[in-house]
Amino acid sequence: MKHFFRYVREHCLVWIWLLICGAVFAVVFALYGIGMRVVWYPLLLSAVFGALFVAAGFMKYRKKHLELERLKPGDGPVTDYLPAAGSLLEEDYQELIKKLEEEQRFRREEWETARRDMEDYYATWVHQIKAPIAVMKIMLQQEDTQENRELSAELFRVEQYADMALTYIRLGNDASDLVIQEYDLDGIIRKAVRKYAGQFIRRKIRLVYEGTDVKVLTDEKWLGFIIEQLLSNAVKYTSEGSVTIRVDERKRLSVTDTGIGISPEDLPRIFEKGYTGYNGRMGKKSTGIGLYLCRTAADRLGHKLMAQSEPGKGSRFVIDLESYPLQAE
Questions:
Q1: N or C, where is the chain less crowded by C-beta within 10 Å?
Q2: What separation in angstroms does the CA of 51 have from each of 44, 56, 275, 282?
Q3: Is the pTM of this model over 0.85?
Q4: What element of type H or E holds 207?
């Protein structure tokens, strides 16, 4: 019924014109002394035929509305699917839509080309920067001094930021390199632990991990990236104490530290892109990208990533690996 009432509203000028015509006829007949019964009969006949024309017009109006409603973005040029124009005004509108669509398609092609060029540039840059990083690593390992150890730690951070840039690009490209199958979770965790072993030793932080025989359906590289980022944050914000990795019977992997913790007002927003929070602003070490990439990667894998924290007592990040809408390849 709402479509019918809208149709009536859109043709309100026609109804007003009909009422005026009926009133004019009634006035003229009255002035000539013609009985009003002569007026009511033709008006009644006109109303009956008018109702038929209104019904036909409404059916045509509704059919066109349903055709337009069924149109879906991405089916091709919209103008190829539009119903035939019923008036000069509709033809003008369709021509305008066609021009706007062509302009939008051209601008999108330009944007896609620019985006691909930028992704290719950053991917090339990340791969090229790894060569001098590797050379500097070898040079710093030639002599075991306190200064070289500090420089090696900073170089490790540079390498991590370079890897993060490449990860950011890959995730922005719909993560097309996902390989979903069953993996031994223990192997993925130990690989991440080995990568950060030097950082734990340098910061004198104890790592607690007892191993697990759990198998999970995931992508090894992307789950490894999430664990590495959680370990990186744990090392960064823990000055003393320990970091504990645990996997429970419900396939929930947790990384718990005894660091500075996260303030309650920051906790709901830590996975937002670019959000650094109080700790990031005070320490000026956070980019606000790491946890955002973790959440994005977890969403792509179908895993749930959650955080709990208490200021001054540490943080606990949990990856729920039990429920996921994935199938092994």
A1: N
A2: 11, 9, 62, 74
A3: no
A4: strand 206-209
Question: What is the C-alpha separation between 248 and 216, in angstroms, rounded?
Answer: 13
Q: Which distant-in-sequence residues (6+ apart) come within 8 Å of 42 by Cβ?
A: 25
State pLDDT tens for residues 292-305: 989 999 998 889 99
Measured distance CA(61)–CA(116) in Å, rounded = 44
SS3 of 38, please?
helix
* Alpha carbon 285 to its chain's center: 26
Look up residue 302 and give its two tokens: 């179908």
Q: What size, in residues, is the chain?
A: 329
Torsions phi, psi for 294 (to 5 deg): -60, -50
CA distances from 265 to 182, 194, 309, 313 (A): 38, 34, 11, 16
Nearest by Cα to 6 from 42, 44, 57: 57
CB atoms within 10 A of CB 232: 19
Q: Give the CA-trace dihedral at 320, 321, 323, 327, to 10 degrees.
A: 150
Integer CA distances (angstroms), 89 to 24, 79, 85, 222, 272, in order: 31, 15, 8, 54, 47
Quote the tokens at residue 84.
């035939």
Per-residue model confidence as pLDDT tens digits over 58-80: 888 788 777 777 776 655 676 66
Strand partners, 243: 207, 257
